[in-house]
# Entry
Amino acid sequence: MTVSTLADWLARIEQLHPENIELGLDRIGCVRRQLGLPKPATTVISIAGTNGKGSVIRALQVLLEHAAPGAAAPRAGVYTSPHLLRFNERICIGGQSVCDATLVQAFERVERARRAAGESAGAELKLTYFEFTTLAALCIFTDAALDYVLLEVGLGGRLDAVNLVDADLALITNIALDHEHWLGSTREAIGAEKAGILRPGADCVIGDPDPPRSLFDAVQTDAAQAYWAAGEHTPVAGHKHSLLATDSGFEWFGVDSSGNAIRYAGLPEPQLAAENWSTAMQAAALLDALPDRAVCAELMASVSITGRFSSHRYRGKPVQLDVAHNPAAVARLAQMLQDQPGRPIYMIFAALADKRVDAMLQQLIPLVDHWIFPQLRNCPRALDADKMLQNFHAQGGNAKAGEAGGSVQDALQKLSAGRPDGACLCVSGSFFTVAEALELIEREQTFE
# Structure
């Protein structure tokens, strides 16, 4: 097989390992040593957590890349997953996705190292898709001479490919139930897995105001200093951070790298979740890279991410896209929908079969007036649309309010024409659902 284009490489990488997921650092560690990869940037930040990682990374990226007066703007590399439309979205430098040619060169380099490491070991080293692409990202970042690299953990933390790199600062957004088959069925077990990104002597920022005991224990053992989201169950002693709504706007408090208190008042309501902005601002403060209040206010009011209750238009009508794909993320979506008073809410919802769909539906059924459950295309993990409708009925959904079948495109077209003006239309349930909708929205914009 001739492997020359990015599409060729992605197809090949998908076939290298019989499993989509095989946690562990031994195989990828062998290939990294063969590559001889050094630290990928002056400062490395690893980000784990059940939800909010992408929002924290986006907020922290714009904070770190803001240029101080009279100084050159720092350069940051960002590695995230999954992508929505194009693989290139996963690896960005300076806020821009890397090009196909750069990715192909990195894949070729990783493949040579994989083969050489296998020859040395006397057996082929099979890397998963995520392991292979993580090494490619590290190659690209190493060659780019960056000030910062932000690495999003793919699954868990302790045995995730990203944890191959020792981080200077670890961020843990929150702990909730998801991927129980791999990480455990309790917040305590999941917290212990995510705490695996901590390193002795390195600080950490915790974004969960109600962290499990396992995270407390890990921090005491494995982190130099922890900076906790303020909450009823966070340690009485220790540094705290929070972004709270007040009568005069939002107010953030945290501490700098010397332990001095910082307080920014009169901030606008952020586009991204307040708790994620707080985590990002605390991380920037520890890196002595937090801009002044005015800059933070401007960024908070303007920075958003596609798929985090982001606003779009399809056939002239507004559509909200949200990648909520587990009960904790859906709780956040439910809060956003509650801020649509007096508006009928229409939902296009499709989720993966291994998710806790019942708990997701329970939170949304009281808020949504009409549902369409489409069948996702090219997604073997998707829950069958008819089974989704059955689940909807089992959770108390009105039989007249839900229908199943067709594609995301069919649902979007139907509700674009058949819902009243002023109604809220939301597409949610998984990254795959949002990706299908976004592809249609961008395609329409291309032909306008």
In short: The chain has two domains: 6-302, 308-447. The radius of gyration is 22 Å. Residues 317 and 416 are 7 Å apart (CA to CA). DSSP finds 15 helices and 17 strands in the chain.
